[in-house]
């Protein structure tokens, strides 16, 4: 692939400001390379979103905001491995490999991106090509300095330092991390290199282009990201959430409501559940249904009966969502009684009319509430020192101590905000 130096590179922003560019004679030649899979490409290619300034910015391959991985390979087994392990659904094809996008369309659903000869990353959208970023070759320290100056200028910069291995990633991460206008990706040829990029200055790059023909590399990188809680499917999360004992002050049967069961694509373990509640400031740890229910109901290790439709639930990145907003493919944060977290992918959301129980609890002088279904299978995780590690709402009493997660500040669209005066009741 011929890539320009930083000084020669075309500006993706100059292409983006035109918003769309009709397929020219040059891009028509490139389009013919994709002709075998053009219909599939149009169907599965992600469409970039447009921000408030009208600039096109790349949309993530999934709803996860933490880290993103693109695959660049000439070996279909690498793409297959990435799809199977949940690492990526985005593949980057240089012009000489463009025909592979059509040949591989039956492997699985993925979003193909094209890397043109001038280093521009584009995606096809019907009769249009949209530029989503640029790829820049690094041959020396002067290139690194020039790339740093592109923070806030280019929407996405992919840094290829394969010709010059000594790249101060921390400098670029710090520069691009200071702006919301740009994202920084890095080309990595091994999972270990990608891990180093994701850990630079702790926050790391926004994404990695994993360029390899070895199917073991995407699996190794997926295992790392799952362990860090950056993608769903099973490993330990990136850290802990603080859980605080709260004393139950009220348990009362109320009317019926829309109850939400969150069914996930992975199994919960004993001690794990979701943080839900009526108030964003205090969320209850509701245990999963991985335990048997006195022999009456079989366990459902994939499910948390999370409560009323209006309740908050904790999602990755320190955010919250309403239970009513959850959809198949979304992510939620699984928490155990020690506060350890991992990311779980939602496989189904089941909403039914059920009788509800109001549970109120108090901690640190603040009172919190949640509405849960009146059922023996609905359990809260208890505080250390209690006789049982979980307690069903059917036997919950005033004075019992349960675990809650306290949060400061109000919430707007799931994000913490600062309000001068607000309250929940």
3D architecture notes:
By secondary structure, this protein is α+β, with helices and mostly antiparallel strands. Helix content is 17%, strand content 37%. Strands 1, 4, 5, 6, 7, 8, 9, 10 and 11 form a nine-stranded mixed sheet that branches. The protein has a six-stranded antiparallel barrel with strand order 12-19-18-13-14-23. Strands 2-3 form a two-stranded antiparallel ribbon. A hairpin with a 2-residue loop joins strand 24 (410-412) and strand 25 (415-417). Helix 4 (76-84) runs parallel beside helix 9 (216-227) and helix 8 runs parallel beside helix 9 (216-227). The longest helix is centred in the middle third of the chain and has 12 residues, at 216-227. It is elongated. The model is unreliable at 1-10, 12-65, 234-238 and 410-422 (pLDDT under 50).
